[in-house]
């Protein structure tokens, strides 16, 4: 099922040709309850699985009719997710490093020593909001110069000490994009480098018909007040974008599957890796690079929420289930928007858990030397095992149900680099005797041998010559 109109995001994955009726009803009911109890003039939701739309629904009305998938809503801070992709693209091109201080690229920033990574992860110590008046409800013409974005206390914390959400920090990142793209406005860079390759023609800086109007709903009466929708100018990278359900489904598919035309899979995973702890009790996981991270019903979700006067938005991806969900509403408050999309994901996972990909053998001939490395290894007396992955990668797993496990990427020099877990970034080496046989593994100075504390093994500190014994 898809909300009609648009027509370009209607295919569904073969294994999920259509969600079962009771799943669709549960999703529609969650949307309906949220719209009714939150008193939203209109609300839309969608689920993407296997890279395709498998459900979409709408409640309420826009201009007297049920909204469809091509109606624009303002998406607020979801904009930050897009800006982060632009910054990571610059890094991948070698035009910057994430640990570079922002002051090496831009003048007159309040925290010149703060790194680009700290700005992306809201740990640069900058204030949460721009200089008044309330930037989300006023024209960007009131803040025409970069210096106008920051008040008398632009820095509240030392850079790198804590997570403190900063909207002006993303205005700085937008200026960074423009600086390294020869003065091209960040919105134009976004359109050319990200939106067009992904087919997101209905994601824009300004509203384009058809679009929803933003409303504030009176807290004690069923009456509404229109909210302004100004161009926020230099603050645009913090929350200016408008988008549609159909376009955001494309964005969800990108976040789940990647697209090498836009951003490498490794950089996309980096964005979704925790960079700082949470600011408070708001998230159970933390924040990555332009990406909120959350645990919901034991599921690890990545994405972003968004709000601007008159609008609420959220998009969460669950990589383990290869599923994403989004929700949009045109009200300032009242709808627990983050929980709605998380509930969509929980509903699908509970009713129709993911069908795994079929097992297939590794392609091509087997490297016998690599195959010989697989099997049990011991760190002291702790049993582990190595498994061979695609691309000559390795996976270290524990055989006791707990402990340090990691995947490793093969390097050209015959070593492997840790990709995740405790050993992320660490080097794994196969140490060899003069005759070429492997004697042990060296992992960041930890020694793994074929037997537990073998007397002849190269165990640091040596092994008692009398070996293992009973009482």
Q: Quick check: average pLDDT?
A: 92
Helical content (DSSP H or I, runs of 4+): 10-25%
Strand content: 15-25%
Largest beta-sheet details = 8 strands, antiparallel
> From N to C, what is the helix and strand string?
HEEEHHHHEEEHHEEEEEHHEEEEEEEE
Task: Assign the structural class, choosing from mainly alpha, mainly beta, alpha/beta, alpha+beta, or little secondary structure.
Answer: alpha+beta
Radius of gyration: 25 Å
State the separation between the terminal residues, measured CA to CA. Answer: 69 Å
Q: Counting H and I runs of at least 4 residues, what is the number of helices? A: 9
Number of strands: 19
Query: What does the overall shape look like?
Result: globular
Largest sheet, order of strands side by side? Answer: 12-13-14-15-16-17-18-19
Detail the poorly predicted runs.
Answer: 1-16
Task: Tell me about this structure.
- There is one protein chain.
- The protein has nine helices and 19 strands.
- The protein has 471 residues and is of the alpha+beta class.
- The strands form four sheets. It has an eight-stranded antiparallel beta sheet. A seven-stranded antiparallel beta sheet has the order 2-1-11-10-9-8-7, with helices on both faces. A two-stranded antiparallel sheet has the order 3-6.
- Strand 14 and strand 15 form a beta hairpin.
- The longest helix has 18 residues, at 21-38.
- The chain is globular.
Compile the SSE list and pairings.
Layout: H1 21-38, E1 42-49, E2 52-60, E3 73-74, H2 78-92, H3 116-120, H4 167-180, H5 186-198, E4 215-217, E5 224-226, E6 242-243, H6 245-257, H7 265-271, E7 286-287, E8 292-296, E9 299-308, E10 311-318, E11 323-329, H8 337-351, H9 368-373, E12 375-379, E13 382-388, E14 394-398, E15 406-410, E16 416-418, E17 427-432, E18 438-443, E19 446-448
Antiparallel strand pairs: 1-2, 1-11, 3-6, 4-5, 7-8, 8-9, 9-10, 10-11, 12-13, 13-14, 14-15, 15-16, 16-17, 17-18, 18-19
């Amino acid at each position: 099922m898809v909300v009609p109109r648009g027509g370009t995001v209607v295919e569904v994955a073969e294994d999920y040709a259509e969600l079962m009726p009771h799943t669709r009803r549960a999703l529609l009911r969650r949307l309906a309850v949220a719209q009714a109890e939150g008193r939203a003039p209109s609300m839309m939701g969608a689920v993407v699985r296997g890279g395709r739309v498998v459900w979409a629904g709408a409640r309420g009305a826009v201009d007297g009719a049920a909204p469809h998938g091509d109606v624009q809503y303002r998406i607020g801070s979801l904009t930050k997710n897009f800006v982060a992709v632009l910054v990571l693209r610059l890094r991948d091109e070698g035009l910057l490093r994430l640990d570079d201080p922002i002051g090496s690229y831009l003048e007159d920033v309040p925290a010149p020593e703060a790194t680009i990574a700290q700005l992306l992860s809201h740990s640069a110590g900058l204030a949460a909001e721009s200089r008044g008046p309330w930037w989300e409800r006023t024209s960007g013409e009131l803040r025409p110069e970069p210096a106008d974005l920051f008040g008398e206390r632009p820095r509240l914390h030392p850079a790198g000490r804590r997570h403190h959400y900063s909207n002006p920090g993303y205005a700085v990142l937008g200026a960074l994009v423009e600086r390294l793209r020869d003065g091209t406005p960040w919105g134009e860079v976004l359109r050319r480098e990200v939106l067009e390759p992904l087919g997101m023609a209905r994601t824009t800086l300004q509203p384009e018909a058809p679009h929803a109007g933003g409303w504030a709903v009176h807290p004690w009466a069923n009456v509404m007040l229109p909210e302004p929708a100004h161009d926020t100018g230099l603050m645009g990278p913090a929350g200016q974008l408008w988008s549609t359900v159909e376009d955001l489904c494309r964005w969800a598919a990108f976040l789940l599957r990647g697209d090498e035309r836009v951003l490498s899979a490794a950089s996309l995973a980096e964005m979704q890796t925790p960079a700082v702890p949470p600011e408070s009790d708001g998230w159970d996981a933390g924040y990555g690079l332009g990406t909120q991270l959350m645990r919901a019903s034991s599921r690890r979700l990545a994405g972003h929420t968004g709000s601007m006067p008159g609008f609420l938005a959220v998009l969460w991806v669950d990589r383990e289930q290869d599923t994403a969900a989004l929700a949009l509403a045109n009200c300032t408050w009242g709808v627990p928007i983050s929980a709605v999309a998380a509930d969509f994901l929980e509903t699908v996972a509970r009713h129709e858990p993911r069908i795994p990909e079929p097992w297939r053998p590794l392609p091509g001939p087997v490297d016998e030397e690599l195959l010989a490395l697989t099997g049990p290894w011991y760190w002291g007396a702790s049993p582990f095992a190595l498994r061979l992955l695609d691309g000559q990668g390795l996976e270290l797993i524990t055989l006791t149900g707990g402990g340090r496990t990691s995947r490793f990427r093969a390097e050209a020099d015959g070593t492997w680099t840790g990709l995740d877990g405790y050993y992320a970034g660490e080097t794994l080496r196969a140490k060899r005797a003069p005759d070429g046989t492997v004697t042990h593994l060296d992992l960041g100075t930890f020694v793994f041998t074929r037997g537990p504390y073998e007397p002849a093994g190269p165990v640091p500190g040596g092994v008692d010559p009398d070996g293992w014994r009973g009482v």
